[in-house]
Amino acid sequence: MLREQTQACGPARETLIAGGTFVVFDGLVPANRHAGVFGRRIRSAARRGHTIEGLADTVEILRQYGEELLRTGLIDSVDRSSVFTIFLNSSATEVLGCAGGPRPEPLQVPADVPG
Fold first, then answer.
1. What is 90-102 written as a DSSP string?
2. What count of other Cβ atoms lies within 10 Å of the Cβ of residue 111?
3. How far is it, in rounded angstroms, from Cα 42 to Cα 38?
C-alpha cells in the first residue's frame, strides 16, 4: 500500500521491511482537520530548523479529501530513530499520504537556564 504517494513512502516502506513496527488507530477524523493540524506542524518544525519529509505533499493530499473520514497510523523503526505518520482511507485499505523520517533531537535546555 505504500507506493510513492509522497517522498516519505519509500523510506517508510524500507523501515517496515527492516522490521519496524506498524499500528493503525481506530478513530476516524476528517481529512481537512488533519490538514489543518499538520499544516501548523510544518510551520513549527520549520521554526526549529527541522524538515518533515513528505509533510507538505501530504497536507495537500489531505486538503483534497475534505470532510472524508480517514484513519492514521504510525510506522516506527526498530531502533526508534525514525517515525512516519500515514493517512489511510476509512477502511484502512489504501494509504493516501505519508510523512516522517528521522526523529528530531530533543530540544536542549542551556545549562545556565534555571530549571
1. TTS-SEEEEEEEE
2. 6
3. 6
